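Hi, does anyone understand the following?
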Amino acid sequence: MESYAFPLILVAISVGAICRYRNINPALPLIAAGLIFEFIFPKTLGDLPDPEVILTLILAPLVFAAGLSSSAVDLRKVGRRILLLAVGLVAITTIVVGLLVSASFAALSFAAACALGAVLAPTDAVAAAVVAARSGLPRRVTLVIEGESLVNDGTALTILRVAVLAVVAGSVTLMQSTGILLAAVVGGIAIGAIGGFCVSWLMRASRQAIVANAILLLTPFALYEISEEIGGSGLLTVVVAGVWISHSNAIKGNPKTRLQGDSIWSLITFLLESFAFVLVGAEFLDSYSRLDNPNLLNLVLIAVGLTLLLMVIRFLFMALWFLVGPKVRPELFANRKGAAKEFVAIGLLGVRGPVSVLAAFSIPLTVDSGEPFPGRDLILILTFGVVTLSLIMSHFSEPIIRRLNLSTSKDQAVEDKARLTIAKASLRRLDEIAVEADENGSSIDTAAFNDLRAIAVARIETLHAVADPEAQLADESEIWMSRRDIRQSMLNAEREALNRLRSERRAPGEVLKDLTRELDIRQEVLGDPGTS
């Protein structure tokens, strides 16, 4: 039979690339592409690997990449809030959905309904980040959203493991459930920390950027499998390892390794996210065809009801937190109005994504007796419906969040202060070098010293001007070209001159290659030439 798996991957990359080019949220177009592809080429998923293999190959590196892009410093600042959402809210959501769904549908036992609740509990960082970026949310809010989605995948899938075991084995005692959860959490964190430490050391010992990143590329798969083998949470392991490696590399890592790694993992994240969303759409028709006497209208109504239930649970949780929070952490609620707006924004950004469908896809096909897993296809269909509706509703959340007018001025002030601090450190060290040279009776290149000092002083003066708007000479609207635009124009002139050297063959190829690399690094610092 002809395999359509590779064309499906090409469709995912093509649609994802078009969405990035047009600056469109790719989630819904990719899901639609998956639906259309499965409609034209039925049984596409039958050509793909085992569901658990797909979970390992897609979800583990995706979560690991999220850990690499996070900051341990920021996570510590909002750690309590993240734990409340990623552990407390996930557990409550699982239980409430399990109780209501099992009471409403005879086809799903309480354990199977809890499996559905665990599948629907985790939020998606990608979809939420797109809305957050467009809405101009402050960093303190986006940190909570990103941190929540980083941790709640491991929490939800650990609970899913217990629920699935209860269905497959027939029953699980409270003691057994507690033991499984503790083993998953403790084992996952321990393997993640040990693995993160070892990988960080290996990357530094390798001394070669390409070797270090090859080690990093294999890390999520190896650690995930090791953790799962000993009963730990594989996803929790790769999250902890990713955060550990990110923090360690930021302090002791090789700059070339970091730059190269950022490019590699950006590409991997784009490919896997695109394929995951397409897989969501492709899975729907395949699961729908296996249902007995399906009623599409009823399924849509149930999905709508579940989506609204998830929203109600999230907002009730946020409301309770808002009422109790001031008694526990009064300093965080000094500005009650501002805190209320942030809580509304966090409540609206509980978007579900492909992680939920991949988690549902990992549910085994049969139980121990050999019978089909009860309600597996129904769980998949309802998960697809909730994810799609949640993504649609996120578009309506965007204008509401924008109207909250949450200020980002503090974020810019913090960034400016950090830049000023390191700029002053640079100038201070330059002056120390001059003093040390004088004390040792050594000579120093006066011209180079004066040039470097002039650059450092100009940098500090510019940062002071940015930090103090009243000190600026003109309003931004009156400036013909911004500082960034001028630097971009100068860089473009250098690139044009380099291209002329190449076309006229006035420099060796190796020299041209080195100069191109230098310009590329400076462009990376300056940012995308297509943005302002």
